[in-house]
Every structure is written in C-alpha cells, then in structure tokens.
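Give me the fold.
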Amino acid sequence: MVKGIITELKKFASHDGPGIRTTVFFKGCPLRCKWCSNPETINSYPEVYYIASRCKAFGACFHICPQGAVHPDTHEKIDRNLCDRCMKCVEECPNGAFKQVGTLTTAQWVLDEIEKDRPFYGSDGGMTLSGGEPLFQPEFATALLKGCHDLGISTVLDTSGMASADIVQSAMPYTDMVLLDIKHMDPEQHRLGTGVDNHRILENAAIMAKNSTVRFSIPLIPGFNDSTQNITETTELARSLGVSHIDVNPLHQLGTDKYRYLGLTHPYDNCEPVDREHLDSIIRLIQSYGLKTTIGRMM
C-alpha cells in the first residue's frame, strides 16, 4: 500500500490547471526558497500550528505536554526547541489553537476522494499535484498520477522540477500537463535564492516538454529574478522547448500567517511586489517572443 504525507486536499480549485480541480498538497520539498508562501509544506514530517487568536488560556495544553514545551503565555506558546511534535496539545485543545499540519495517508484514500469530485470536473478538470514538491515523494506521486490516468481523470503536476531524471521519466506517461516553476536562469543566483542550483531543473524541463504539455511559471521576486536579462533568458528557454505559455506570479504576502503559526519570521515581510509599470514591461517582453502570458495563473 503506497503512502505519502500531505497537508491539504483542496477541492474546487480553479487556478491549478484547466477547469475545476482537486489539488493535493504534498509535504516536503528539496528547495528552501526564501519567498516560499507555503512554509508548512517544506518539511517532510507533521508539524504543529499555533494560532494565538484562538487561544483562550484554557491551560490543559501546558499540563499535558510531556516535554514541557507549551507555556501559559498565549503569544509565545511553544518552545519549538523542546517540542517533539507528539500532538498531545492538538488533541487536548478545545478551541483549535493547536493544529497538526501534515497527515500520512494512502494513495487509495486520495484517489477515492478524487473520484467523489469527478462529477464537478467536466471535460477539463481533474487532479493537480502540488506542494511542497510532489516529486520529493516519487512513489506516492506516481501512484496518484497513474491511478487517475487509469480512471480517465486529467492530471496536472505543479513542480519545481527538482528531482532525478528517472523520477521525472516515470511520472511523465501519466501527466497531462506540467506547471513548471523557473525561478532563475543563473545557477549561482538560483542557489542563493533556493539552496540549490538549477542544472537538474533545466535538464528536467527538456524531458517534461518532450513528453507533456508544459507551462512555465515565474515567481517574480523584486531584486532577485525580475531583470530584463533573466526574463529574456527564461523566455528564450521556453521558446526553445516549445513551451508557449508563461505565468508571471508576483511576490505576495499570503504566507505571512503560516510563518507565524509555525513560530517563524516571514522572510519577505518588508518586501513590496514589483510595481505595475515594471510588471507590464515584463509581460510585453514575453509577448514580444510570441508567447502567451498571464499575471497569476489564469487557465
């Protein structure tokens, strides 16, 4: 029985591929992007959210914690250095101030849930694997892709492309579309922003484009990858691979609360998105190569 760890099964998603989709968010990622908006999907094990606004100082949590990691202070509630993620505080809290993020489940359970949503998919919708990084759990990801393929349900893989070529090759026969993040074309800049260089990602981009429909996504980060040179090189890569669409996704602050729930500081709290004039110039540049582009992911 193939198992994997996920953070969420999002139903009726409309920006994760064509039509209405069920998006499976995998937990675990080999990258450490400084702008990540889903920090709860980075680590490959269950974690504890603490949502201070829900805490009513009931008190049972700090009495039940075997490590003494939970304190009466409603703001600095968890000592993350002591917490062993036993989840006793989650079980004890009557107000939902503690929440487990990350659930071990089976591929069959996920496929059963996706099957329930089939009436809503129409001719275009289906399942999307996202994260985190789906290919970081290759057996689980491939089982879901193949399972949907066998059921006649459309599949989309939303990925950073950071995996071995063998893993990518094994997933492609069951993948109808790839939404591939291209974060930077320069290997060293890519490493500085994500913790890894981009050689493997660019190699996999070619494999994916040869075997599936691919759309590039650029997470647009001011001062990191919004230069004319980088956008030009990304667009030229897309055109050379036969990729006809690039989604431009400006930096946003939607992950700020998630960082706070995990006891972390959001790395881009003081960073503003690219201004509209610059954004429009980037769109015009991509379009000048004959490619389609959108701000955000509009399918």
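The first strand starts at residue 3 and ends at 13.
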